[in-house]
Amino acid sequence: MIDSISKNLNVAQREAVEYGDGPLLVVAGAGTGKTTMLAHRVADLVRKGAEPSRILLLTFTRRAAGELVQRAKNLLETVSKEGFAHVTGIWGGTFHAVGTRLLRIYGKNVGLPQNFTILDRADQEDLMNLVRTDTIQVMDKKRFPKKNTLVSIYGRCVNSRKPLYEILANYYPKLEEYLPELAKLFDAYTKRKVDDAMLDYDDLLLYWSALMKQPEIGERIRSRFDWILVDEYQDTNRIQAEIVRGLTPTGKGLTVVGDDAQSIYSFRSATVRNILDLPEMFPGTKIIPLEMNYRSSDLILKATNQVIAQLKERYRKNLFSTRALGVKPVFCRCRDEDAQTRYVVDLILEHFENGTPLKEQAVLFRSSSHSIRLETELARRRIPYVKYGGLKFTESAHVKDLLTFLRLVENPADLPAGMRLLTMLPGIGPKKARQLMGLLHDAGGNFNIWASWTPPRNTGDIWFQAVQLLKGLLEPEKDLKQQIQDVIDFYRPILQEKWPVDGDSRLADLEQIHDVANRFKGRREMLAEFVLDPPHSSEEYADKPDIDDDWLNLSTIHSAKGLEWKTVFIIHASDGNIPSDMSTGRQDDIDEELRLFYVAMTRAKDYLYVTCPMRYFHIGPSWGNRFSQVLPTRFLPSPILKSAFDEETAYEILNDDETEDFRNVLEEENLTLDQWLKNQTEDLW
Q1: I want to staple 274 with a disulfide (CB 3.0 to 4.6 A). Which of 241, 377, 436, 494 is the partner?
Q2: What is d(CA 606, CA 608) in angstroms, rounded to the nearest whole number?
């Protein structure tokens, strides 16, 4: 007879829920009811007599821990209305939250006062910056890494337990020349934290791990818990694996849940080796795969199974659906980025008209900047959207810098734009910038007043170049594309100085703005479309749309993990984007890119579209403007496409000559686009 708590579970879930106290690894495929299984296991343990306060539940987010405990409580109340209220006594939370709680109790044993301060990421960056100023005296400060990069390097070292020289060689090769300075800085940073009783996020794990290695204290902590349950184990780093082993050296009472196929956070120092090597760490580990998928149609799963099967090292599982066969995923080769945008937006509207709300649709991409054309088109068609993952394109610092020039020319009284522009020039601080904006105001917005101003010596000729640029942007014969190109040419050396590590990718973002400029009549229209003034209105529009309480979801693939939608589009699926050309140097990186693509595909319930522009347009100072041909992602080789996908093309757009002819018609007849459209359609109804 099936227990009432487990009656709605499938066979594999039930086996995992009722397993004994030996080490257990549940390999939970995407959409296979992992959370349901884990909540049932917690409830089953308590129902069989486990003391809740002796259960440790480690999750990826604090919210996930709270949800699991509540669901377990609800399940127990179906068995008995009394006696299980104390289930909330479970130790549940993230590694960092639980570590903090234990360090408050036992930290004095490793020299920590009970009132230690925890630094968040912003605090950490500020402290690193202060220590850098005090410690590193002789260096090229303009090219030395910024505070956020310094914290990232430090975090990679600590969490991966790898030496600094190896981290620099693998992830920051342009900074290897600063190895001695970085080592000195990190030593000083660590000492400052110790002296001032401050811990950052990485320290919480380091000190917890150190506690577990203290014979007496480690044993006291181990004796607190009989059951250790760890969720999302594929997203843990090496220190977290050390902590788990310290909590239960033999694996007794240990349940680990995760999916090696969804390990995608190596940039946070997570390692797939933790879950792959678990049976070696704990001999006798029982492995139970969850393969019954409750999310996707069978034909979508057929495609995802074939994609992930390309990984050589993985836990073998074959997901199957509880749902209808469905329709095949679609792979579409698009003429270029504009054709891709039109294809995707047209299909979004088609699904919407057929009854699928925008909220049930999502567009996924490898990099946040890949959505620029799509965001522009959605704004043009007044389709509301929410974007997850990274800043929206126009919130990026380098994009704001470029648009600042256009804003100031459009409105010389725009004080925020003027302050931003002026303070990016050497030798001009906020005080001097404010004075210059006062001069411009008194001159009625005439930039000639700045031409007569004598800049500080360290500002040099760039001041007069900037003034000449601003005056040139006002020339009526210059169209918007030329204006943007002029700004890019001026701003390029500033950008390379501000971001020496990733300047090229940021420059590519600016080139995308240049590419879409011909869609707008001029500066005013483009700035209005991007909604950059006032500064927060674009965020309010995109993040809290209020049109029928419905909006489209845009997301980086990393931010989409754990989510699901009825219809999913994966855009820019070309080699160089998926996988990213920055992640093809090592086989481990390529494998993670494959897993990332798999995660994107498994978000889809009913409809999955993968699109690939076959050419991209580039602008370069040395090679000029050019198109480059690309190949579809290597993760969809011909055999997979032929067996698991329907293939389409999206080439049906105006060619360059036809586009030019159309523009000529508008100019010769002195028509706006709206007037032309009215002339073409007024006899139809």
Answers
A1: 241
A2: 7
